[in-house]
Design goal:
single chain, 354 residues, mainly alpha, two-stranded antiparallel sheet, 14 helices, 4 strands, 69% helix, globular
Length: 354
């Protein structure tokens, strides 16, 4: 105990964090005993929000580990993939064509048709990621990282304009099978979309955990450590880039689908704000560490909890804080976290940033 107090005195940032966390923890314990039903519902919503952020954050991490640059086009990729899904499930023809959609004639229930459309949307997102990597990222190998980051920012703007034009007149419904239904916990409703986000995030992180231990995963970690040394060892850096961008685009697309559902939104449709899920998830990436999959998961859960709990228990101060204060909370948490660990909770200290 004495060593802990001594460490607090020597590190003002850690003391600052400790001073914030103690009253927050006491307050939440009081709310738990005051109304357990509301506290549990809030906790579940925070897990759903955090899981959505973690999925998008994981896409950021995979691309950063391979290319050493932040993909500012992640939001545009999220919307592009979600739009493709909406075209597949809401229209009677194949997206971008007038050919009848063969999925509609498949036997089985509607949820099965939706699942097939989801897989096709994931394939489309992966192809889009591969095309972007091949045309705009691979030619920049060896060039300044700032230039690569600016290219991704340009891609974000170009794709967002196209996506916004698509949903300007009519929002595109992704028609998730569970809709906005849920189950009751006392007087509180827990949406099925929250459970779906949590399960999807768990599957995504288990898949990445297994991938990191495969031959390609080891190659990606080698490229993240030193591209030149990896190339000298015969590792195909271009292939690693391609895999990272394809996987990052798929994760962005899944995050885009969940960005249309509770607890993020209630519309179940892609609109001109869906792309913001990437920038809302950015604090999770920075807080957890740009090169850490574990950090993406923990960072997502932390900022998701901060946003949801602040929205629930500080709602009475909306006249002072403003209507949009919950969206600001993750950035405040990120800044506080960086005061304590400037490279993120699980980030590599030697890592270079753009």
């Amino acid at each position: 105990m004495n060593n802990f107090l001594l460490k607090l005195r020597k590190e003002p940032a850690l003391m600052f964090l400790f001073g914030i966390m103690v009253p927050i923890t006491i307050f939440l314990i009081m709310q738990l005993f005051n109304d357990p039903e509301i506290f549990f519902a809030t906790w579940m919503r925070s897990l759903g929000m955090g899981s959505t952020y973690a999925i998008v954050a994981l896409g950021f991490v995979l691309i950063f580990k391979a290319t050493q640059t932040i993909n500012f086009a992640q939001g545009a990729l999220a919307v592009s993939g979600a739009l493709f899904l909406s075209f597949a499930v809401a229209d009677d023809h194949i997206p971008f064509t007038t050919i009848d959609n063969p999925i509609n004639s498949l036997p089985g229930p509607d949820w099965f048709h939706w699942g097939v459309s989801l897989v096709l949307a994931m394939v489309f997102a992966a192809i889009l990621g591969l095309v972007i990597e091949r045309l705009t990222i691979r030619p920049m190998v060896g060039q300044p990282l700032f230039s690569v980051a600016v290219i991704t920012l340009g891609l974000e703007i170009a794709l967002r304009v196209f996506n916004n034009d698509t949903v300007k007149v009519e929002f595109r419904n992704v028609k998730v099978p569970w809709g906005i239904d849920g189950f009751q916990v006392g007087k509180e409703t827990i949406n099925y979309s929250i459970i779906a986000a949590m399960v999807t995030a768990a599957i995504a992180f288990v898949a990445v955990f297994i991938f990191y231990r495969s031959r390609l995963g080891i190659a990606m970690r080698a490229v993240a450590f030193d591209q030149e040394a990896a190339m000298a060892q015969g590792i195909n850096v271009g292939r690693v880039f391609a895999i990272a961008w394809a996987a990052g685009a798929v994760l962005a697309m899944i995050g885009g689908v969940f960005a249309t559902q509770p607890p993020v939104k209630q519309s179940l449709a892609v609109d001109n704000e869906t792309a913001n899920i990437a920038f809302r998830a950015l604090p999770a990436v920075i807080l957890g560490g740009l090169d850490s999959a574990t950090g993406a998961l923990l960072g997502g859960l932390i900022v998701g909890a901060a946003e949801i709990f602040a929205g629930q228990y500080a709602a009475g101060e909306i006249d002072i804080l403003g209507a949009g204060y919950p969206v600001i909370v993750p950035y405040v948490v990120m800044m506080i976290g960086l005061l304590v660990r400037p490279y993120g909770l699980f980030g590599t200290p030697e890592i270079r940033r753009v």
